[in-house]
Amino acid sequence: MGILGLTIQRTNGIPIVTKTWTDKLSGFTQIDSMLTAGFMSAITSFADSFDQNIDFIQISPKKEPDSNGISVVLNYFSDVMMICFTEPYLFLDKVTMKLRWIYENLIQTKLDDLDAVCNVFTITPEEEMYIEDILFDKVARILIEERKEQIISVLEDLENHFAQEEIRGFSINSFDNSIIFTYHIDEQELENLLCNMGKGGYVKDWEVQYKPVWIEKNPVLVSYTNSAVKIQISDIIMKEKAADQEEGQLYFGVVPLYYYIITDTDCSIGPIMEKINTSLHPIFVDYKIDASKLDFELEI
Asked: For the chain, which domains are there?
């Protein structure tokens, strides 16, 4: 699932929109927006008292102490606060980028159009769909769905080529690490592995990171690479000029896909990752998204 829920409201407690996509947040929609505003104000003031920011917090259910819990990403944009609930394995700084995109493309526009007397606005069903499209990487999902058969064919060839290696699963994840596509591994199992892998982050094109992960005393090797496939989203995501790019930053107007592979711990991961990259890359070169499938205007 990745993204679990979102609430957007004014700092004075006026709600704008609240959406949840999981039973893990059952009851949250019943919380008074003033209570949420008070909570945000309190923890922000606490951090301000020693010149710090609150970027995210971690919560876990009382009845399930062994649960991976939920990460809560906290952001203020002017007098609007956005609280996004996610699985812990997401790259939370990249989730913030999605929230900023939603704010600057939708919320800020509505605020600019507000009448001085009427300081309240609503989100239409079409705009709610727009928000979901951004949070759930609709552009990337369309791109991968249209090439699903080709991707599976490449992975089948990979298994045959490395028949001596124990390849347990593969996934394609978005730039904030949301799982978009899986092969030979259950999404819930993969989520558990990613949560236990610990904090990951941005890697350069073709760079590989890996880590042994123990689940119930059975170790596996979780490896991922930046595919060098860049999906054009919108220049609103990163406003830095291309000339100012430094190592670790996203390119102007585009975001990457990540390839994950789950193998046995003694697997020779280098040749496998090289084969994945060189075999999948041609599938995504010069891609075109059918704009009619989108609920928003794509800037390409």
From this structure: 3-136 (3.30.450.70), 141-293 (3.30.450)
